[in-house]
Amino acid sequence: MTKPGHPIRLVVNGVGHELDVDVRSTLLDVLRERLALTGTKKGCDHGLCGACTVDVDGERVLSCLTLAVCADGADVGTVEGLARGDDLHPLQQAFVDHDGFQCGYCTSGQLCSARAMLREYARGDLSAASFDGGADLSCPPEELSHTEIRERMAGNICRCGAYPNIVSAISSVHEATC
């Protein structure tokens, strides 16, 4: 006996999709198995590594912990939606220029998280690193330091240890847009 599906609508990387999904399906599994968007990786499947990070309505989420039915009606952005044809997104180009990846498994989550993190910083969200004892907590630090970037990207694990290069890549994109 087949289980009845639950209808959902998603806009993924600008393309609309109407799907019937099992209410237990994660957004990660729907992206990978139903929509064939395999750039988003299943790393730990427990929300610990960040390899599955995607944008949902402009906020970064761990797609392995997000039920697809909870994303019904959402605008979802994955790593496949970053580049425009042959033109890499500035973060993708910076990761290439700064050797911000080694094995590449975490890269899609790192890129999606970095894009969201830069938006969060720009809108004034604070991080734990913002609380340096004497900081004006009414606004984020004026400079997005490497310490701030490391703190804000802490949920994304790179088993190869490319952190200094990832931080440099993100910093270069931030500096270029300021």
Automatic annotation (TrEMBL):
The answer on whether this UniProt entry bears the keyword Iron-sulfur reads: no
Protein's UniProt keywords contain Metal-binding: yes
Could you list this entry's UniProt keywords, alphabetically sorted.
Iron, Metal-binding, Oxidoreductase
What Pfam families is this protein classified in? Fer2, Fer2_2
InterPro entries according to UniProt: 2Fe-2S-bd (IPR002888), 2Fe-2S-bd_dom_sf (IPR036884), 2Fe-2S_ferredoxin-like_sf (IPR036010), 2Fe-2S_ferredoxin-type (IPR001041), 2Fe2S_fd_BS (IPR006058), Aldehyde_Oxdr_Iron-Sulfur (IPR052914), Beta-grasp_dom_sf (IPR012675)
CDD domains recorded: fer2
Q: Which residues form the 2Fe-2S ferredoxin-type domain?
A: 6-82
**Protein name as it appears in the record:** 2Fe-2S iron-sulfur cluster-binding protein
- Recorded source organism is Mycolicibacterium iranicum (Mycobacterium iranicum)
Q: Mind giving the lineage of the organism this protein is from?
A: Bacteria, Bacillati, Actinomycetota, Actinomycetes, Mycobacteriales
